[in-house]
Predict the structure.
Amino acid sequence: MRGGSNVTPALAAEHGLTEEEFDRAVAILGRTPSLTELGIFAAMWSEHCSYKSSKIWLKTLPTTGPRVICGPGENAGVVDIGDGDAIVFKIESHNHPSFIEPYQGAATGVGGILRDVFTMGARPIAILDSLRFGNPDNPRTRHLVSGVVSGIGGYGNCVGVPTVGGECEFHPSYDGNILVNAMCVGIAKADRIFYSAAAGPGNPVIYVGAKTGRDGIHGATMASAEFSSDAGEKRPTVQVGDPFTEKLLIEACLELMAGDAIVAIQDMGAAGLTSSSVEMAGKGGLGIELDLDRVPLRESGMSAYEIMLSESQERMLMILRPGSEAETRRIFTKWELDFAVIGRVTETGRLVLRMNGGIAADIPVEPLVTAAPVYQRPWRRRDPEPDIDPALLLDRDPFECLQRLLASPTLASKRWIWEQYDHLVMGNTVKRPGGDAAVVRLLTGGKALALATDCTPRYCRADPVRGGAQAVAESWRNLTAAGAEPLALTDNMNFGNPERPEIMGEFVGAIEGMREACLALDYPVVSGNVSLYNETNGNAILPTPVIGGLGLLANVRNAVDLALKRAGDTLILIGETRGHLGCSLYLREIEGSEAGPPPPVDLAAERRNGDFIRNMIRAGHVAACHDLSDGGLLVAVAEMAMRGGRGVVLDAPPRDLPRNAYLFGEDQARYVLETADPDTVLEAARAAGASARAIGAIGEVALTLPGAGAISVDALRAANEAWLPDYMAQV
Amino acid sequence: MKAIVVIFPGSNRERDVCAALALVTGHQPTRVWHRDTTMPESDLIVLPGGFAYGDYLRCGAMAAHSPVMREVRDRADKGTPVLGICNGFQILTEAGMLPGALLPNRSLRFTCRDIHLRVENNQTIFTCGYEAGQVLRVPVAHHDGNYTADSDTLDRLEDRGLVAFRYCGPDGAGAEAGNFNGSARAIAGIFNDSRTVLGLMPHPENAVDPLLGGTDGRAFFEGLVGALQ
């Protein structure tokens, strides 16, 4: 074909390719690329699609285990849960688009992660969302919260998949870059998983779903650069979602997947038709030829460049067994979706695009995929923060502090958010949002899944290694507190500009900590997503490696939650309390300081204490359980009290620690449980080597503490529930 | 008891209502696709929750003109009971099979949570599983559930005992306190004149299992199935 004489290094730079990367593309082709080819190279080699800054570090994470059917590299991870069933799950970010256009950005984030899951043959059964916004006082924040929440709800509610859990935090570091991470979980037959590798030269390549329009062109390259203050001008790069079409696409794909028509399937996500066709060809070691004149278009006059880079939503690419086109067409016509044979698999190893009687692109696939740049970016570790001595802090009134903490943006009830999500549709939600983990019943075998998302970004900023380990450990704890066995996780690595050594150092450190925790807890990473360049005008977000955890309950009836159940029961604290206040929420909200190192993470203690908790729950000794995290012991007890509508009579704090360090310290590997049988639990803890001690009894309507008086649970609940609705009601 | 559940493109609570019916009858109801021209004989027709056709127009407006609705209306006219839940209720009002309309919630937000309902009339096939005045806790999950009608229609509904359920507080009193979506006279569900068609916004089908947080919806299906057997 003719070289695109008008493609210059300057144009390549506008597409986000460095000079060296452009030279490499020219060398691969043996000529100057055409504009369409340039667009394809730029998209495939963008940070978003190529993971060029993160790849070498991601490889160090443990990704295998006896339950893992498919680890990272496919559309989603796949885990064996026995009885012939498999769980398919993944988390993905839609940070950049959600900041520019919050409703559509968040909605299409949900749409994209749903497609990643049902592409593999799974019916989506749960969505979770992990959200981070800027300072509540920032004039933009309220608008972003409102748009993101209605976008997630608008999409998930309409497709009829329950949004069962998640988290939401506020911090000024997200003022210019909010985080919208969505996780989807689906169920499939373990022997009916669909993959994306093309096979069978001559097989037809099929396009199904919605038509292609001009929306979302360059979404992947946008997500691979930091914002300047003109972020609003990038609005045309945000896609527009249509959950109704997605619902039809789910039903049509699952109907087709019940038969044998599909050889390979891939959703069109970031970089649309480009990445889906290149990835399918690349994984199969084959070529693909597409006739772009046959692509169903929403607008007339679209160029090959636009068709290949459109990120229009609700589209899939499939390779079919020859002869199954008619049956496939029948199913997609029934669901009123577009269906078109747009090409075929070839043996040439080349991606060839034809349009208007000419050739718009002709690229060898293998080097496009394997010669993608990989960077070992320089990185630097931050100096450790000096310890905080709690004895130097004022001895403040604990209940006053508690009330302030419960009304702080981080701990305030997120009911205003999750009541806008249909968390009950499908009729399997056993434990609803607002607890440690959501629990979703499976229809066969009496089993259930526990699901949670976690990260403590302030820990990750102060000490990325510890913060990374803590995020994994807290996820593992949350699943454990529901009674589940943690099986595997998906990670969403949200960081700033990796070209800055201190940011790359945060990334490298977080991976190191995550790796240690994953290994110690037998908790492999099976899928994930990296979102870099989350910074504006040089201000980066707190490092935020979000962990999406999957746990299994062999018996759904064993699931416990945090609501206190019976007056007279005993509260037992599991795990060592050392009063660590560095980097704590108490320090930030009450003392106004973000100083100090995060709490140490003792992975052996995590394992020992968590295994003990799970055994106690299975044995039926636990009426309620809650893991300790933000805000420490007193916050955890208050949350249990508010959820159960019951009070607690706490014993006097130990004398060897400052009172508020005991009550609000964030030492790890700890849980509070409610039991009617304290002797049995304490004896079992001794035998298991888990630190345990009774700390109080379930009472009536108030929380009481010797030396601090009492506070009514209703008053605490009022403070906890009021903040977010009040904030959102202000104009 | 033979039940049919009509599936529109965009229905999404059909599984939930099928499971609730199966729990009580011991067998799955028949699912009918909205384009099917023939509908088997049945003792009950259910229009389930969801977002038929995406509800990009007014909720239920497109589905009300779906071919299957002609048959549903004919059957209803001949006395076959029809139950519309949530989106099904919206479709029944848009189809003119029930009076009034469902506006966006007063908050203008989608709301999913448990609410309390008072049984206003238990002398019908749909509500005979309950005591009159009984208070139920069941979930809602909708954006457009704010029932409205002109005052003559509302008076007529009240006078003829056609109000099926009203939102209320946990103790059954204080209708306005429980009226989270702003419905006229706190109405959550209504019958047609012959009380063989019921539309309601809440989801009794999501309250049939103690594991899932409540069983107050179970008597709804037990009463209905018992009455039709």
User: Anything to note?
Assistant: Chain B touches chain A at residues 9-10, 12-13, 15-16, 19-20, 35, 49-51, 53-56, 109-113, 139, 141, 143, 203, 205-206, 209, 211-213 (CB under 8 Å). Residues 104 and 144 of chain B are 4 Å apart (CA to CA).
